[in-house]
């Protein structure tokens, strides 16, 4: 066991630190401005060789051990840079379930940031109970025709592509009739409806109404009926702080809050420091475990709970330090409330832990 | 000892509740409905409740009306004018000034505040926007002028009333958020059942109700104490109430957001409007834990 950097890791960290010093302050870190320039940030990170660190080289990654993602997150936090764009779960979903042809066509653009993606799973009536989704995909020659309504779709307004779940077999049992597609967002059958977050941010997520949109049949990801398995891969990874890189966001905010308090931090901030450090170390441990090939099971739900508590503790610290008069801090607090909902609510994570790890109940 | 409300107090509370239900915002879109706000303003002005204190009302009565207005998200001034009236009876169209801004200032013309042994008044300038979408702050304009004097004891009493009034608003806001979430839990279905039938959701809401009951108890004592206990004891009671109600209200409002899931995180859901109001009332006349310096009574 060694918590210190290896010589290669230390060299990487140095190089990254140097690059971040040059970039300092060039990219907005919050609010609508962040979302507006997130694509530029993504491409800049990738062009400099600092994005997709643990992903295959064939698709634009660097095939480095996962611990490099930790180094990246730590240094982003330290430099006060924006968090890395979180799309690891989409990469995993497409990587694991897509054909080699689809992977070659779509992964490079996803990873280098030249093509933007969104995830069209949730619907007004199907959130926690995703398998009750009703968006339909009906085969018509070489294409499928889509009808339905997706909601809370993050970054839908800037996305080129949507990884979309739709029902291809209405007669099959609920989990079996769902398939996944790569759908072009810019087409007549798709209407984008804005959705404002409670913080007032309008760029975070949107609604996507599908009324006769089409998708080529060969852009189905996996086999017909494999949509549910793909969804489980995606949400499983969406629960992991290591995939999401959010530790950088919390670390950065905690540093900013500390800088504002002269002398003793209020108790809320002290707790935020403790939680943030826990999460940083937790991510290190989890990523090290991946070196043994430990795969992602229901443990992801524990990680998601730890991440959520950390973010919400930091949110309360932001209120304690800055009050509501500081728009950035108020926003950080309000945004922290979403963490216990997105990617599966905290109640659902606890159900999973109780049932699948502890063997309690159904 | 009998700490129940009197029949008159219950009538006052019911009247305030009716007014809030009839004319308060029922949806986020209603916040921009100028017609509704004008009708609400007229109705509130007609009740005379902005001058409750100079009409001889006790702290308990003030708390009851403010609580119902918080529950109903009433978006015309009440708390500010009530406090102004206590400080400077007869000052017309007045609210309070705190830390360089007029509070609860929509449609108000002057803002009053205590300083040293004096009561100062300033003209209210343009409205500003902040965390609270239902009560607006405003800039102060021109010179502050002395309009009255104030004894130390009166200043402490006034501060106590301010803590009680903001605590009452917090309690009402929590009750409103809780009711919203309970209603939603009864109709939203996932996995073929209402979400309220899941213990995870039901327990959150049960905890919320317990926090509300605790808030009622500390607030009722503090509201009574305003006029009945020596100033330092009354202030202590009000600090306890403020700390408790602020923490309870934030928790209950956060729960309301959580129970609404994705919808709860959108602008269109009233849950965040209530959360925002709770944050604003917690910050107005704040109490720090360090101020609770006395042993248990
Ligand atoms: C910021 C943000 C970004 C998002 N981004 C995306 C995205 O990019 N793509 C996408 O597809 N979706 C996205 N979502 C949607 C998200 O996945 C859903 O909101 C979430 O799964 C909850 O579903 P719901 O909103 O329908 O809430 P509901 O499922 O209706 O839940 C309401 C309440 O009931 C509880 N509940 C429900 N079922 C149970 C149960 N069985 N046991 C105990 N409690 C239960 C929940 O915990 C919650 O408190 C996003 C959401 C947010 C807030």
TrEMBL record, chain A:
Domain Acyl-CoA dehydrogenase/oxidase C-terminal intervals: 274-358
Keywords noted in UniProt: FAD, Flavoprotein, Oxidoreductase
Domain Acyl-CoA oxidase/dehydrogenase middle: 118-211
Annotated ranges, domain Acyl-CoA dehydrogenase/oxidase N-terminal: 6-113
Named cofactor requirement(s): FAD
Pfam families reported in the protein's UniProt record: Acyl-CoA_dh_1 (PF00441), Acyl-CoA_dh_M (PF02770), Acyl-CoA_dh_N (PF02771)
Family, similarity comment: Belongs to the acyl-CoA dehydrogenase family.
Protein name: Acyl-CoA dehydrogenase family protein
From TrEMBL, chain B:
InterPro entries, sorted: AcylCo_DH-like_C, AcylCo_DH/oxidase_C, AcylCoA_DH/oxidase_NM_dom_sf
Boundaries of every Acyl-CoA dehydrogenase/oxidase C-terminal domain copy: 165-279
Record's keyword terms, sorted: FAD, Flavoprotein, Oxidoreductase
Domain of life: Bacteria
Record-linked PANTHER family: ACYL-COA DEHYDROGENASE (PTHR43884), ACYL-COA DEHYDROGENASE FADE28 (PTHR43884:SF20)
Family recorded in the similarity comment: Belongs to the acyl-CoA dehydrogenase family.
Protein name: Acyl-CoA dehydrogenase/oxidase C-terminal domain-containing protein
């Amino acid at each position: 066991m060694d918590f210190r950097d290896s010589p290669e890791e230390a060299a990487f960290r140095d190089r990254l630190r140097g690059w971040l010093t040059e970039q300092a302050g060039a990219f907005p870190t919050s609010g609508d401005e962040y979302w507006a320039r997130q694509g530029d940030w993504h491409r800049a990170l990738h062009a400099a060789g600092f994005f997709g660190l643990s992903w295959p080289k064939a698709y634009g990654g660097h095939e480095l051990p996962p611990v490099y993602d930790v180094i990246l997150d730590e240094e982003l936090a330290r430099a006060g840079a924006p968090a890395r764009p979180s799309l690891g779960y989409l990469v995993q979903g497409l990587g694991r379930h897509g054909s080699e042809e689809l992977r070659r066509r779509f992964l490079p653009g996803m990873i280098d940031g030249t093509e933007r993606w969104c995830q069209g799973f949730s619907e007004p009536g199907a959130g926690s109970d995703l398998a009750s989704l009703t968006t339909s995909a009906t085969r018509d020659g070489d294409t499928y025709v889509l009808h339905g309504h997706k909601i809370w779709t993050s970054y839908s307004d800037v996305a080129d592509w949507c990884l979309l779940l739709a029902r291809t077999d209405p007669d099959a049992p609920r989990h079996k009739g769902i398939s996944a597609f790569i759908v072009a967002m810019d087409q007549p059958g798709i209407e984008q409806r804005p959705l404002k977050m409670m913080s007032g941010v309008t760029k975070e997520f949107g609604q996507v109404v599908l009324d006769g949109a089409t998708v080529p049949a060969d852009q189905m990801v996996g086999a017909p009926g494999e949509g549910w398995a793909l969804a489980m891969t995606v949400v499983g990874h969406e629960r992991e702080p290591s995939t999401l890189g959010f530790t950088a966001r919390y670390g950065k905010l905690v540093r900013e809050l500390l800088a504002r308090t002269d002398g003793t931090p209020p108790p809320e901030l002290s707790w935020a420091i403790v939680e943030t450090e826990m999460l940083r170390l937790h991510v290190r441990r989890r990523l090290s475990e991946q070196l043994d090939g430990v795969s992602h099971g229901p443990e992801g739900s524990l990680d998601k709970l730890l991440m959520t508590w950390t973010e919400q503790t930091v949110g309360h610290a932001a209120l304690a330090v800055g009050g509501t008069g500081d728009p950035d801090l108020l926003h950080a607090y309000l945004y922290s409330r979403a963490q216990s909902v997105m990617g599966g609510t905290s109640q659902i994570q606890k159900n999973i832990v109780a049932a699948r790890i502890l063997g309690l109940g159904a | 000892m009998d700490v129940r409300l009197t029949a008159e107090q219950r009538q006052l509370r019911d009247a305030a509740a009716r007014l809030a239900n009839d004319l308060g915002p029922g949806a986020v879109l209603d916040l921009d409905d100028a017609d509704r706000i004008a009708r609400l303003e007229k109705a509130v002005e007609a009740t005379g409740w902005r001058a409750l204190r100079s009409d001889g009302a006790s702290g308990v009565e003030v708390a009851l009306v403010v609580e119902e207005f918080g529950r109903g998200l009433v978006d015309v001034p009440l708390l500010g004018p009530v406090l102004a009236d206590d400080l400077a009876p007869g000052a017309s169209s007045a609210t309070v000034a705190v830390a360089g801004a007029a509070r609860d200032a929509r449609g108000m013309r002057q803002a009053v505040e205590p300083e040293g042994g004096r009561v100062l008044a300033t003209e209210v300038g343009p409205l500003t926007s902040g965390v609270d979408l239902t009560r607006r702050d405003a800039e102060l304009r021109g010179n502050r002028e002395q309009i009255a004097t104030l004894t130390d004891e009166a200043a402490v009493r006034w501060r106590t009333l301010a803590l009680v009034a903001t605590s009452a608003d917090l309690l009402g806001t929590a009750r409103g958020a809780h009711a919203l979430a309970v209603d939603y839990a009864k109709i939203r279905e996932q996995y073929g059942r209402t979400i309220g039938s899941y213990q995870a959701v039901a327990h959150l809401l049960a905890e919320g109700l317990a926090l509300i009951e605790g808030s009622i108890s500390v607030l009722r004592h503090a509201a009574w104490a305003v006029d009945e206990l020596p100033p330092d004891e009354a202030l202590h009671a009000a600090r306890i109430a403020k700390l408790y109600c602020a923490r309870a209200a934030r928790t209950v409002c956060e729960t309301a957001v959580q129970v609404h899931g994705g919808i709860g995180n959108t602008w269109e859901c009233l849950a965040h409007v209530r959360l925002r109001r709770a944050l604003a009332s917690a910050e107005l006349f704040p109490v720090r834990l360090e101020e609770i310096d006395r042993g248990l009574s």
